[in-house]
User: Which sequence fits this backbone?
């Protein structure tokens, strides 16, 4: 039966130290080969924590790596180039993203979001902006969601 190791690693910077090394050692796989594969698969998420799952077949020592995507909040903060969200989202704003950036994040998270199409998934991303203290197109996120409902950005969703 396959053994599974799950860990949260820095995108493109996984190492043989904890949490991966000690968990993979007893399974008898080539740890550096696993680490290099993880780093190749996560380099686009550099600077963010990425969930990875390493599935090892103990008989053949073959491994498979599944890479999750960072949380939506991390992707938004990465777009803004900030370390953390606003401590008081209602009054203090940390920046503003564009609808195009929200669409880009929605496309990255396609499998993990509930929205039935790109328009609804983008509204989910913009909803996360509310709690982070991030404006969209310089306006409050809820205003942008209403404009999306009104069809103002429909040309971007085709």
Assistant:
């Amino acid at each position: 039966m396959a053994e599974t190791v799950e860990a949260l690693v820095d995108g493109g910077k996984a190492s043989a130290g904890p949490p991966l090394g000690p968990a993979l050692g007893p399974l008898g796989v080539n740890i550096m080969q696993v680490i290099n594969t993880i780093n190749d698969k996560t380099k686009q998420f550099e600077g963010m924590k990425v969930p990875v799952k390493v599935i090892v077949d103990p008989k053949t020592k073959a491994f498979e790596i599944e890479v999750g995507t960072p949380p939506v909040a991390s992707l938004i903060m990465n777009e803004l180039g900030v370390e953390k969200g606003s401590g008081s989202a209602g009054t203090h704003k940390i920046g503003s993203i564009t609808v195009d950036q929200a669409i880009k994040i929605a496309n990255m998270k396609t499998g993990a979001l509930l929205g039935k199409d790109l328009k609804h998934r983008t509204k989910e991303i913009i909803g996360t902006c509310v709690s982070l203290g991030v404006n969209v197109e310089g306006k409050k996120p809820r205003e942008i969601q209403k404009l999306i409902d009104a069809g103002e950005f429909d040309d971007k969703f085709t």
The radius of gyration is 19 Å. The mean pLDDT is 90.
